[in-house]
Amino acid sequence: MLKKVVLFGGVLLTTALCWFAVRNYRDASAIAEENLRGVAISISSAVENIAFHDPSLESLHGLHPADLAFLALTDDSGIYRFHSNGDLIGKRATADQRATEQEESAGRVTLGTGERAYQYLHPIHLPDRTLHLRLTLHTYRADTVIRKATLNVAILFGLLAASWVLSAIIYRFAVRDKRHQLEMARREELARLGEMGAMLAHEIRNPLAGIKGFAQVIGKKPADERNAAFAAKIVAETLRLEHLVFDLLSYARTAPLSPLPFQARELLEGGVALVREESTAKEVAVSVACPADLLLMGDRDQLGQVVLNLLQNALQAVGHGGNIRITAERSETGITITVTDDGDGMDNETITRVFEPFFTTKARGTGLGLAICKKIIEAHDGTIAIAVVPGRGTTVTLTFPAAMEA
Ligand code: ADP
Ligand code: MG
Q1: Partner of 351 at 20 to 30 A CA spacing, among 10, 193, 359, 362?
Q2: Which protein residues touch ligand 1 with a CB less than 6 Å away?
Q3: Domains in the chain with CATH codes
Q4: Residues of the chain with pLDDT under 70
Q5: What is the reported pLDDT for 248?
Q6: Over the range 133-162, which residues count as b (16 or more CB within 10 Å of their CB) and which as e?
Q7: Nearest-CA neighbor of 342 among 406, 278, 258, 285?
Q8: What's the pLDDT score for residue 101?
């Protein structure tokens, strides 16, 4: 649409400029003609004046106006009474050189030298006779206007042509650039897919190798008393695979949110309950601080997963007997939820990469937990930020717009 408007505008502008230039050019011819006629008329009246006062016409030799090529006066019988070329005076003019008009007339003629000149014929009525004036003027000075106009037209057409060509080139480059960008994006996507595929293969191959190994051992010595322990390891590896598949599905999910109102405190405490077994085993104290009346509007299940992922990370970060604190509150800008642990924190490289899918520093991590959190929180128009005090712990802060409060 925009392309069409621009193209239409360009054509319109070009047409207008061409019309203007052509008109200007035509006017220039008329102006040149008018100038020549003006010069001719003034010379003609000077000649008439002189002829009136000096019947011998001798004084005409003193007349040298600018632009005059030559000047001739013939009488009714075709004899030159005066001619700029003195040799011709008294001679008979050739038929085509005779001026017999009774009326003024003017026009362009080609001289014997090939020069295009302006010829002006005019009868001069004296008391005793009528003379026929033939004036020929050089047009060089008068035609300057035409030459200028021609030059202007040429420059204008040149500029127009150049700008069209330039526009076409720019357009082609833009099209090519766009195609190039699309191609680059596609390649990046493919590269990312390949990278993900490689990581996935790695993530799946390790537990599979474990499962295969333990099963082979059991197969060789079915009666071995250690088999129960190997079976437990097979179950653990299978759980790990299950976990991976679950995380992958969560990360890949594009299902729209289904927002419903729910209590913030219930969300947080629900998360704590899900990790109770682990936290108890590690003797980690988990506290929740949240106003009882804080009602949120969002996808309860997906936000529940965010809380669970953050709690799991915190639990894995703290040592035995550590502390985890979860808070939710209304702030000036909206709603803030924090999860703080007193674990070891993380180094700078980890901080910059935590949201990358498959980035993990754990032997048994999927590296998808925080990537999933980020995706879910952004779908709720929220933000996630990580603050670390090295050696003292980590705080993950989620913020949501005030509109999220139900
Ligand atoms: P995973 O837990 O499977 O490793 P995550 O995306 O949940 O994947 O986390 C990515 C990485 O971020 C973790 O491997 C860990 O290095 C770091 N991390 C996340 N949360 C914490 C935390 N509370 N304390 C220290 N490091 C953390
Ligand atoms: Mg995690």
Answers
A1: 193
A2: 309, 313-314, 317, 341, 343, 345-346, 350, 354, 359-362, 365-371, 394
A3: 2-142 (3.30.450.20), 147-250 (1.10.287), 260-404 (3.30.565.10)
A4: 99-101
A5: 87
A6: bbbbbbbeebbebbeebeeebeebeeebee
A7: 285
A8: 63
Tell me how far apart the alpha carbons of residues 44 and 66 are, in angstroms, rounded to a whole number: 13
Provide the angle, in degrees to the nearest 10, between the axes of the packed helices 369-379 and 227-252: 30
Q: What is the pLDDT of residue 100?
A: 63
Helix (H, G, I), strand (E, B) or coil at 162: helix
pLDDT tens column, 76-117: 888 999 999 889 999 998 877 776 667 788 999 998 889 999
The pLDDT value given to residue 173: 95
Q: Give 245's Cβ-side CA count (13 Å radius).
A: 8
CA distance 226 to 24: 106
Alpha-carbon gap, residue 15 to 89, rounded angstroms:
56
pLDDT value for 32: 92
- Residues β-bridged to residue 287: 325
DSSP letter for each residue of 365-405: --S-HHHHHHHHHHHTT-EEEEEEETTTEEEEEEEEEGGGB
Q: Give the global pTM.
A: 0.57
From 240, 315, 325, 346, the mutation candidate for ligand 1 (largest count of ligand atoms within 8 A of CB) is 346
Strand partners, 393: 389
